[in-house]
Amino acid sequence: MKIVVLNGSPKGEISVTMQYVGFIQKKFPQHELKIINIAQRAKQIENKEETFQEIIEEIKEADGILWAFPLYVFLVHSQYKRFIELITERSAAAAFKGKPAAILTTSIHFYDHTAHNYMQGICDDLDMKFYASYSAEMRDLFKENERERLLHFFQGYFEAIVRKAPAINVYSPLYLQPSEYTPKTSPNPIDTCGRKIVIITDAEQDHSNLKQMVDRVAEHFTGQAEVINLHDIDIKGGCLGCIRCGYDNTCAYSGKDGFIEFYTNKLKTADILVFAGKIRDRYLSSLWKTFFDRGFFNTHIPSLAGKQVAFLISGPLGQLSSLRQILEAYTEWQQANLVGIVTDEEPDSQKIDNCLRELAIRSVEYANSHYIRPTTFLGVGGRKIFRDEIWGHLRFPFAADHHFYKTKGLYDFPHKDYSTRVLNLILGWLIKIPAVRKKIYGTMMISKMVEPFQKLLSKL
């Protein structure tokens, strides 16, 4: 069989993901795995129609399609995302219809599920026959049991193609309800209390709803908000995946385009950030993805800590729970505060007006009080993955991360709470005695759990 491998790494075949593909090719030499470097050749694919069409012809002739890519900031690489947009823009979806599809990713398991959800949604939108996805940890190929697991996965994929296995779509098509947002009331400006406010958007000429929402929020901030369109920023390209930034957060693009200066001088100095974008397929635009990918010059260091962040979204966010989770997780991981998300899905323009005003009011109130909401699993889980990886395998090459995590006390293990450790040791021995164990787990456990809180409340 011929399997077309759509490679999502900007490094082409010199990538960890492609080493997994190489392993599969060695173990299944009877099948041809045709690798097409999508992310690496993104500009050529977009600028040369014949290059794009050559890829589409390869897809038409394939027995199966493997979407293979490393994770980049909760999703695929921005240039891979652009290729997915081109499929729709150039009416090439028919080439994918009915093709057996699988997903292979490599990562450290930081939000790999959101990337898989996105790609499976794309496969469903293209009416492909989705088999399954495989999320490999970057170093799994060195482990015999993981190699065996990987072989089982691909054996199943190949056999499913042979027997023409059916597939059921998990994600329903997006229902786009056209609703024009027209501001109904004159804005009542609020006192920004001297806070620096920056609104970032990718609005284009035909994005009327998004532009209206951006303008309305800016008006609430008494003209103090600076509106910046990503189309006006000199961005030479997407993240190269070179990890040059790992040593001291210096990007390979430094001095070559305007992104680093924009991010450093505008975003990092702001008190309130409003990100405004229009949904493209099941995410925002590839330009927004470039923004998030290029922001990785800060590596695994939260660069927006303490800031108030809000999102203005044009499109069916209510149907995209995974995208909402990405926005929430991004904010929590950045140690910023998510003020809220306002979309244009509401048909009542007056209600959108009210929500935008409330968003502006809360942004200033929270900035004044330095409020950051408690972190949920989205932030805690992600931060611990980074903590463990930077302490271990990623300490080199991410020297800047190691220095930051060490100086900020983020290496919080082993726990040095000696009183708790001694108490656990004593109680651990005591509960081995049947009579004591019966009493503790029978009547004492619940009351003793709340006793320290009751003592605190009595003091307060």
TrEMBL record:
The record's section on InterPro entries has: Flavoprotein-like_sf (IPR029039), FMN_Rdtase-like_dom (IPR005025), ISF_SsuE-like (IPR051796)
Judging by the UniProt lineage, the source's domain of life is Bacteria
Against Pfam families, the record matches this protein to: FMN_red
The NADPH-dependent FMN reductase-like domain sits at 1-108, 196-335
GO-annotated molecular function: oxidoreductase activity
Query: Coiled-coil intervals in this record?
Result: 38-65
Could you tell me the keywords of this UniProt record?
Answer: Coiled coil, Flavoprotein, FMN
Q: What is this protein called?
A: NADPH-dependent FMN reductase
The organism named in the record is Sporomusa malonica
